[in-house]
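Checklist before submission:
- one chain only
- standard amino acids only
- sequence pasted in full

Submission:
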Amino acid sequence: MNSHQNTRVNCTRSLAMRFFAPAAVLLLAATPRIATSQVVVACDFDIADDIGRFVYGNTIHLDGRRGTSSNTGSFYLINGNSPETDVDHDGYATACDYNNLYIASRTNLLNTSNAALAIPGENIVVTNFPRSLLSGQRAEIQVAVEVPQGTAAGTYIGQIEVRDNVVFAAFSPTRETLNVDVIQVAVTVAEDMDFKILNADSAKILDSLVIRGRTGQRVSGVLRIANTGNANLADVRVTATDLRSESAVGIVIPASNITISPGSIAGLLFGDTTRITVSVQIPRGILGGRYRGSLVVQGQGTAPQRIPLIVIVTSSRGILFANNPVRGTVNGVADIAFNGDPGTPFQVGIFDMSGLMVYVQSGSVFAGVGGTSTVPTAGADFASVVTWPLINGRGENVASGMYLVVVESIVNGQRQLAQDKLMVIR
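Returned file contents:
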């Protein structure tokens, strides 16, 4: 019986010892000197210290990651029949065969920092275990650990106990326990940093954060960040990009109008979640519509994750100019944005201050979103744009002055007539 039944994790051994050497060389190098306490006994087998793949002392040291199997180590079971093969000096038998060997137990592997965390003993996988071990024979036995998906990072230690069903445990004349032995199994689970962005009130993955409000309002939405890795997550940061009109009319809610609280988290514990509030100050006078940007979340040691941030703005303003006044320099144009249900007709008329029509353009509101063929729901959450090249119906440049822009469109299924003044400077 190996007398070292308590865990001995020798962290100071040379790294070179972690390389596997042929079994014969290892056994020769580890052959002990004959001790005066060695005696002849009826039967005994030994699990050898320091012999095997990744065995230091009486412990197999393995490495693994959550949700996978660890690397494979091995230990040697020896039925010694001479003083030279009595590797733990507790006695040897000159002629004893074992024909009913078995794994008596595989204890849970407990986390060395927190005993409440454990890997089940049945996750210790033992292969090539011999049923029989004749006098003078030795057997190499492979060991690995299946690490469950939710295992926290850290070192876990358990043990394997070997017995025989026929040759029972006994004591030697020197009071050493015979015919039973144990080896410790230590697996170090590597850190695997990860997180998920969740719905505010459920464990459902959040695909986008949608906020609704009117112009001039400050509106908010909530999400949660969950630490789904196996170690504490440090330096979590949440940022936002500019929000741009989905209709590609060049209207922007700047990122400076977005407040995130908390915007940074020093640490998010293993298995924990935290709530994040995203607030948007919608500018006054902005055109109604859908404005899209991104929320970017990143923690130390993780890849950044992005989800869409969408703000649906309701506005009583029917027309919005990109520039007002607009300067009639070379290639000068006026961009006129307005709301309209997707796929419905519109007409834009431009009049001088005497009431004469200067320019007219008709068409249909673009029926796609972001350059796709997706058709959004009708309503005052979509915008279109018309470009006026500052000319009249005959193609002549218009003069400086004030012009009235009148837009007729369909909003929420109803005819809407909107008008506003535009200054042209030549």
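Reviewer check: The helical segments are 23-29.
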